[in-house]
Design goal:
Strand order of the largest sheet: 7-6-5-8-10-9
Shape: globular
CATH class of the largest domain: Alpha Beta
Order of helices and strands: HEHEHEHEHHHEHEHEHHEHEEHHHEEH
Distance between the termini: 77 Å
Number of helices: 16
Helix content: 40-55%
Largest sheet: 6 strands, mixed
Radius of gyration: 23 Å
Length: about 400
């Protein structure tokens, strides 16, 4: 089924089903769709409406086309959406561009607000308490900005970094002290569609991005062990290097409150160590450069609400591992460790609503007198070092 054919159907005549993995679907779905990863879908076919046409979609329409032919759907009307989610994004971009073009004469006459201005107003009014207030608080509490700073705001194309760019623009309008911004986008080998989506969003949101290219995806694609870790390390290095070339002394990343608490638990449960994601760090390889995380106190649920309120669509990672139908979850087991931690925290919240705040505060309240061993500047210390003296 094509997008044109889908648009001609009445909503009450079909059921749109996203079969991608939970990780991928969390970054955005086609409006009106329900999320049922393949294994769950096959187990719960009986729960789907019998009199409606079931329309499946995955990342690019490959896996959903195969699934639509599954004998389990015998007797039902099942279709696959051509092009999948990525195809819908392309259609959506075209529609938005046409709409923006049609309204441009009204904008010139002052009869209509630009889309960017609408988004900015949502930050100032509807989401001021949830977004701008914790953004400004993190900058003040952790001393992330100083007069004269030149910050490379690193935009990956996702919801977090894009919001961070808009928050920085809002902060600069307050004109508390002078600082400069460079909105830096690295293309590590995106597909043309993903590259276009980043540029499309930046243009609609009035974010003047500086784009540079690298070949990181090519370098890590054949790596079998920890390709994501290697990719992240390489991306960080490229960003530092380019930012320094542009005269910046800081790079800003879009990690938020939920990233922090998930990192704490992941370190404990999977890494056997107590550590956190710091609000700022000095670079060890690029002298004079510093990394800052001004979204440190912003909740992900509020970012998602802002995204959906403004009808925005963003990239996930968009590398070759996630930009194909290989992650449409054919066996129902494709769940990242971070998503597992999200589920764990969600379950813990049902018993203790304060669990997230407690996890966050736990690394602010470390009592070294009750710690068996700890490391400082790479040196390991044990409680036995001065145990006898205390006795």
């Amino acid at each position: 089924m094509t997008f044109e054919e889908l648009q001609k159907l009445r909503p009450e005549d079909y059921c749109l089903v996203d079969i991608r993995s939970e990780d991928n679907a969390a970054y955005g779905m086609i409006p009106g769709a329900i999320h049922l990863p393949e294994k769950v879908l096959l187990e719960e076919i009986g729960k789907l409406p019998e009199k409606k046409t079931v329309i499946l979609y995955c990342a690019r329409g490959i896996r959903s086309a195969e699934l639509a032919e599954d004998p389990a759907f015998s007797g039902r009307r099942v279709e696959s959406l051509e092009g999948g989610y990525m195809g819908w994004l392309v259609q959506n971009m075209k529609a938005q561009a046409a709409l923006d073009s049609a309204s441009s004469p009204q904008k010139a006459e002052g009869k209509a607000e630009s889309f960017a201005l609408q988004v900015e107003k949502s930050i100032r009014k509807k989401f001021h308490k949830e977004l701008f207030t914790p953004f400004a608080r993190a900058i003040n509490d952790y001393e992330l900005l100083s007069p004269g700073d030149k910050v490379a705001v690193c935009i990956s194309g996702g919801k977090d970094s894009t919001l961070m760019a808009k928050l920085f623009q809002e902060l600069r309008r307050h004109d508390k002290f002078p600082f400069e911004l460079v909105f830096l986008v690295m293309d590590p080998g995106y597909s043309p569609v993903n590259r276009k989506l980043i540029e499309h969003n930046a243009a609609r949101l009035d974010i003047p991005v500086t784009v540079f290219e690298s070949t990181i995806f090519d370098a890590v694609y054949t790596v079998d062990k920890n390709p994501c870790y290697l990719c992240a390390r390489m991306r960080r290095g490229y960003l530092y290097n380019r930012a320094k070339e542009l005269g910046c002394n800081k790079i800003a990343l879009g990690h938020h409150y939920d990233d922090v608490i998930e990192t704490i638990l992941m370190g404990m449960l999977y890494g056997g160590q107590v550590q956190t994601m710091m609000p700022k760090l000095h670079s060890t390889n690029f002298e004079g450069m510093e990394l800052i995380r001004p979204m440190y106190l912003i909740r992900e649920e509020d970012i998602i609400r802002w995204r959906d309120y403004n009808g925005l669509q963003f990239l996930q990672c968009a590398c070759r591992f996630t930009d194909t139908c290989t992650t449409c979850d054919p066996d129902g087991r494709t769940v990242s460790k971070r998503m597992e931690i999200k589920h764990l925290i969600s379950e813990l919240k049902k018993v203790n609503p304060s669990v997230e705040a407690n996890i966050f505060r736990s690394v602010e309240n470390v009592n070294l007198s009750t710690v068996i061993c700890y490391k400082q500047d790479g040196v390991r210390h044990s409680f036995l070092e001065n145990y006898s003296e205390k006795g």
